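Write out C-alpha cells for PilZ domain-containing protein.
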Amino acid sequence: MSLGMMDLMRRKPAVEAEEVTGAERRRSVRQASLLEVAKMTIGGHSELCRLRDVSADGLCAELYCPVTQDERVIIELRTGHIIEGRIAWVSGGDMGVAFASAMPITEMLSHCSFDGRVTTVRAPRLDVDIAATLQVRHFAQPAQVVNLSQSGCKLLLDDYFDADTPCVLQIEHLGALEGEIKWWRDREGGLMFDEAIPYARFVEWRRALNPHWRAADEAPPPSAWFPPEAQEVEDSAPAPRPMRLFGQRGGALAKRR
C-alpha cells in the first residue's frame, strides 16, 4: 500500500451528524468522558465547567456552582466556538444542555477548526477582579488580576517588566503560582504559569470565594445530555440509577429513620 493511501486512511473524516438522525446519531457522534474544560455563561455571569458527554444535539457538563433548569446558557469551547442552548436538567453536580439547533460538535472540538477566525486553542478565561501580590526577584508589590485561566492571567500593576521575566503570583485561596511575564504594556501584563492549575484546585478556589455555593451532591453521571427517561426503547444500555436533584442530601436515609 502506498504512503499516500495510508495517509488518506489515517485522515478519514468522522461520520457527519447530518448523515444520521435520532438515537443513531447520538450513538455515532457522542464522545464520552471528554473532561475538557469550557466556559459557561448564564445571565451575564461566567464560570468554568468540564464536559463529559457531547453530541450534535447537546452535552453533559460537570459543575461546581448552582444552576437552574430551563436557563439559557452559552458554552464557549477551548477552540473559541460558542454554542447556545437551554439547561434541560440538573442532577447532582451535572447539567444537561440541549442546543438550540444541531451543531457540528466534532469539528468544533477539533483543534483544526472549520472557522478560519479561530486559529489558536487556549484555556478558557474568566473575567475577575481579584487582589494579588506579584513577586519579581526579591520585590513584592500589589497587583490586580482582571482575568484568569488554568494556564495564565492578565493583571494590572503600576510598574514595567521585560518579557520572559520569572515571577511568582500569590492569590488568596489559590496559593503561589510560578510563571513568566510574557508581555507588558500600559500598566497591563500577561503571565503564563509554569504549570497549569489543576481543575480540582481551580474549583476549590472558586468555591472558597463563593461560600454560599453548596458543594454538588455526588450522583452517578447520566449516559448522555438528554434526561435518562428520554432514552429510546431500543437502547440496549441498562436503565440508569435514580438520581437526586441538585442540592438534595440524604432524603431516602431520613425516611428510613
